[in-house]
Model the fold of this input.
Amino acid sequence: MLPESLHQGSARDRPAGSDSDYGFDRDFRERCLPLARFLFDSYWRVEADGTESIPARGAAILIGNHSGALPFDAVMLGYAVSMAAGSRVLRPLYHRFIEQHEKVSECLGKLGGVPASYAAADELLSRGELIAIFPEGVAGVAKGFEQRYRLRRFATSAARLSWKYKIPIVPFSVVGAEEIYPLLGCSRRLGAAVGAPHLPITPLFPLLGPLGMIPLPTKWTIRFGKRVYLYRESRFRSAPEPDFDAMAARLRKTVQLQVDRTRRARTSVFSR
Done:
């Protein structure tokens, strides 16, 4: 799960893990690619459109809707980027509570994930990395089934970073992931027991235990929109002070339109 907002920090304060690139292990990632390829090509049959919007080099921020109760969307997003942009590795920023679970955070770090903080984002962007932020945060994966694909309020972190570094934002939408777990609700009590903000309640989980966490083989579409340059838009550039709330609202509207357009185009949850 990725952050609703980034923790405060500065590039002067080197974040923990930066010296070892936050645990990133390219060999481990390569060994995991066959599983990611199976999920992408065969299980969820992901279609990735608009990949030409992903920069081949240089710093940029990917932002989009968060869904699926568990962060499978980040994994499929990263695989789509690696297929479209050659050797580029997407660095998703994940929620800090995951650091409480050593094995999980270690695995995410090896795959390229980074604990969310402005200090970490500063470092990654200053060296030209490609990062992903899910501005809905935990609220994005806690939506009930009847609220699927209705985007929550976006945090301002992506807008602030784009403005600071004068780099593009690539909006993306994921359709299909909301249905892998028909979410009936969330339990904060169960979540607290394992150090998480909540645990999802689905028709099969926790009733069937770990078996209930097997996701449904829905059909996914990931659509990358045109690059957004907030710092070039006259309504923001001419303002006496940056209006990051307005920028975040503009990004949310863009992603919501992409989500709605993709949903209208599909004929079934399990097919195009």
